[in-house]
Known about the structure:
Elements: E1 3-11, H1 17-28, H2 38-54, E2 66-70, E3 83-93, E4 96-107, E5 114-118, H3 121-137, H4 141-148
Antiparallel strand pairs: 1-4, 2-3, 2-5, 3-4
Helix pairs in contact: 3-4
Amino acid sequence: MGIVKANKGVKIVKGNEEQIESVLDGAQRSCNARTVSVKEVFEKAERAEKALARLGIPKTKRAGAIYRYCEGGAWAKSYKYAAGSTGITLKRNTLGWYLTGADRGNYYPGSGKFDAIRLSDAQNEIVMREVRRALSDSSSCRDAIDGIF
């Protein structure tokens, strides 16, 4: 179980499937179960891009966001040992999403999946501005939040 970092990252576009698979293979080399596929990498990149759009971050300001995903452990209580799972790290630059790393970790029963985007300070400020605007234009906090997310 190791950490595989792609030097500058592998751009997540059609035609780079073999390079993406190579990064995943490095982390999942001796595994019985592969928990992340090339298809999932594409799906997660699309999910992250949609999340940035929902947050109101313009395309020109999306570079620097980092997306991290890992499935987590088993849910059955009778399963008492740690299970291996693969995590991926994607980074958004000006040209799109890049797979910058994959790693393998042990997760115990009941540990949930990790599925999150880390925003830059400038991106956080854009989101906060949008939240403030929505709160001032809305009759309730719930309406404002639903309108943004």
